[in-house]
Amino acid sequence: MDSKSEPHQALFVGFTSRLIRVKQDVDLMVLTGGQGPPLVLLHGHPQTHAMWHRVAPQLARHYSLVMIDLRGYGDSSRPIGDRDHSAYSRRTMAGDVVGVMDQLGYERFAVLAHDRGARVAHRLGLDHASRVTRLVLLDIAPTLSMYRQTSEAFARAYWHWFFLIQPKPLPERLIESDPAAYVRDLMGSRRGGLSLFDPRALAEYIRCMTRPGSAHGVCEDYRASASIDLVHDQASLDAGDALEMPVHVIWGEHGVIQQCFKPLQSWAPFARTLSGCALPCGHYIAEEMPEQLVEQVIRFLD
Predict the structure, then answer these.
(1) Does the annotation count 115 as an active-site position?
(2) Which CATH architecture has domain 9-301?
(3) How high is the pLDDT of residue 96?
(4) Catalytic residue from among 45, 53, 248, 283
(5) Which tens digit of pLDDT belongs to each residue from 182-197?
(6) Catalytic one of 69, 75, 115, 229
(7) Is the pTM of this model over 0.90?
(8) Could you confirm whether 122 is annotated as catalytic?
(9) Residue 7 has what pLDDT?
(10) How far is residue 104's CA from residue 292's CA, in Å, rounded to a whole number?
(11) Are 171 and 221 in contact (CB under 8 A)?
């Protein structure tokens, strides 16, 4: 179904937005545009597909872009979480992506994904290997590695990883008391502060966090990563499963991933064909260094 015009339409001139139903109670906001081979873009927390506004126009000259708001985020549905958090697991979200691409008529596609979206992309590449041609993962180490190698420095920098997984309704209630402050405080605490972001994009992140059910959706996202996702990832590792398609990892040399982990070494057990590099920025690569990111993506995908 088509959606009404979005308030951030000026960020994506020439793109088309629509809601696509992937399950009986789940509609995903999807933005499409461009020409060429299909490329799925998946955002991070606490953002939406608006985070791609600085790279989408350039990428659209080479690829047919499919930008998706993950369930629980943006203008997508926010289903109620279940006891084992499977409604927000990476496996479920990967299935959402496949559902979108099926309805758009794309059998095989590449993926560019950041932060939470990159974790979805990891599971997507494992569970639906025949569908994914190449993966570009932005500023993450594997979820298993990040939880099992937690240090004081990591816990202080990524405090929200441990806050959001607390039992409901504590974190939901605290976020809902001032969702705009949550977005500003979280995103503004990293290198560069809020000055990195286009005010229109920042307004979108805040608007979407104030939507009913947003706090529950993002908390369930993180609760799943700290529980059922770890079970799935360990099972894949124990079975000797790894990403079969080429994987390119990019991280910010001034970010937490660089400071607390060895990205390529961390990813080596999870991918058969691996490359990667750091860019001279922080966590929000697509908004901090869009030209350099586009160059890396095109070089890798082509």
Answers:
(1) yes
(2) 3-Layer(aba) Sandwich (3.40)
(3) 98
(4) 283
(5) 999 999 999 889 999 9
(6) 115
(7) yes
(8) no
(9) 52
(10) 29
(11) no
